Design the sequence.
């Protein structure tokens, strides 16, 4: 993966050809939403214009074609993350998937699912372990689960860099730990978690592992079977795919234990006026009208990324990320969150500029044609621990070039002077 190759790939993304404020667009907000290549746009349009129909419920030709597309997409996406097709369920997004897991465990704790769901039950005195660096989507559902079951929510504290290590997590794992939920890659610091080591540690106490893979699946090779996690979640819109779809992964035996969090059409076996039985996973977790065109587009995104090469994408981004950290940190008055040489990190950089609010930084950069994220990035506890209300995040992807990083560094270098913060 070279800078020249990144420029070639950029041509596949129509939106990146535009100008903003009469300046070529420098898009460095991939951590929030990735742009889509023409191949993904074409795949969804082709489905909608040629095969659009309800799946798993019609006997006509279009319904058969749509159902085939839908299940083919499941096969493609499952293979992309090292899973079997019956181990992934379509969800509205990663947030939805994480809630499905937490709410399913809550239902199991109330006795739903009978003996089959008993391994997932929580009770007072049990513990759920997360980290202080989690996205709200991997924090709030566990807070709610603790409230619903009487379990205790514990967390691994971050250090002054905003990072944590396995040695920080290990002492908090006990025979009362029932769930360990954590991000594969932090959306603020870029820290890459030691997944396999945490899974091994969880197995010693019989804890369920839940992986927030939103910032890993789009950016690096991921094999859920090899990692050994029980559950995982990721979103389509962060990996060159469409909005409105995410993926719930669960090891086959864990999905079988999990009661459904949402009910309705499509996921039922037999319905009477007194009771209902549910389909086996993954259909059990796909109540209502399915996101068919989105699934087709997400599969197209997986094919596109696989053709480029996930290892190449990872190496490209990590090199850009290391450059951003080094060159931003060298600017007077700029502090990069997570600039900790002791932990591996991904291709993003969140930073703070002395005397200038992150939203002002973002607007200044926007005027220069540079799109970044400003705010707490849905990680208020992490920012509160560091004593800041917000930061600015620049996040790269396969189309990011050295020239774009040059533009970022040059623009950031002038911000303090522009706002008079260097006096």
Sequence:
């Amino acid at each position: 993966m070279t800078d020249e190759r990144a420029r070639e790939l950029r041509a596949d993304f129509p939106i990146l050809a535009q100008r903003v404020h009469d300046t070529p667009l420098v898009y460095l907000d991939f951590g929030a939403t990735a742009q889509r290549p023409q191949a993904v746009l074409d795949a969804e349009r082709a489905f909608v214009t040629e095969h659009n129909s309800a799946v798993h419920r019609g006997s006509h030709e279009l319904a058969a074609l749509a159902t085939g597309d839908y299940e083919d997409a499941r096969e493609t996406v499952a293979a992309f993350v090292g899973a079997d097709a019956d181990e992934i369920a379509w969800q509205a997004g990663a947030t939805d998937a994480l809630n499905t897991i937490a709410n399913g465990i809550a239902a199991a704790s109330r006795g739903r699912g009978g003996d089959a769901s008993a391994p997932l039950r929580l009770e007072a005195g049990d513990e759920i372990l997360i980290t202080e660096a989690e996205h709200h989507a991997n924090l709030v559902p566990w807070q709610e689960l603790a409230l619903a079951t009487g379990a205790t929510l514990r967390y691994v504290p971050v250090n002054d860099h905003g990072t944590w290590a396995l040695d920080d997590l290990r002492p908090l794992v006990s025979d009362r730990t029932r769930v360990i939920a954590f991000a594969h890659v932090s959306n603020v610091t870029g820290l890459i978690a030691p997944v396999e080591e945490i899974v091994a540690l969880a197995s010693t106490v019989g804890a369920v592992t839940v992986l927030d893979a939103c910032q890993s699946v789009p950016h690096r090779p991921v094999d859920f079977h090899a990692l050994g996690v029980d559950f995982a979640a990721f979103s389509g819109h962060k990996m060159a795919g469409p909005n409105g779809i995410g993926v719930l992964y669960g090891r086959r035996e864990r999905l079988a234990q999990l009661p459904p969090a949402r009910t309705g059409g499509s996921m039922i076996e037999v319905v009477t006026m007194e009771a209902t039985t549910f389909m086996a996973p993954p259909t059990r977790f796909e109540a209502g009208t399915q996101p068919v065109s989105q699934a087709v587009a997400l599969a197209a995104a997986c094919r596109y990324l696989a053709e480029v090469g996930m290892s190449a994408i990872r190496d490209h981004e990590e090199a850009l990320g290391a450059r951003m950290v080094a060159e931003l940190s060298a600017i007077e008055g700029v502090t990069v969150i997570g600039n900790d040489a002791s932990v591996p990190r991904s291709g993003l950089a969140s930073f703070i500029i002395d005397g200038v609010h992150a939203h002002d930084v973002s607007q200044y950069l926007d005027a220069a044609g540079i799109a970044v994220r400003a705010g707490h990035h849905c990680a208020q506890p992490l920012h509160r621990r560091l004593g800041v209300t917000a930061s600015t995040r620049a996040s790269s992807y396969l189309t990011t070039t050295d020239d774009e990083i040059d533009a970022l560094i040059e623009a950031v270098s002038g911000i303090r002077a522009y706002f008079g913060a260097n006096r």
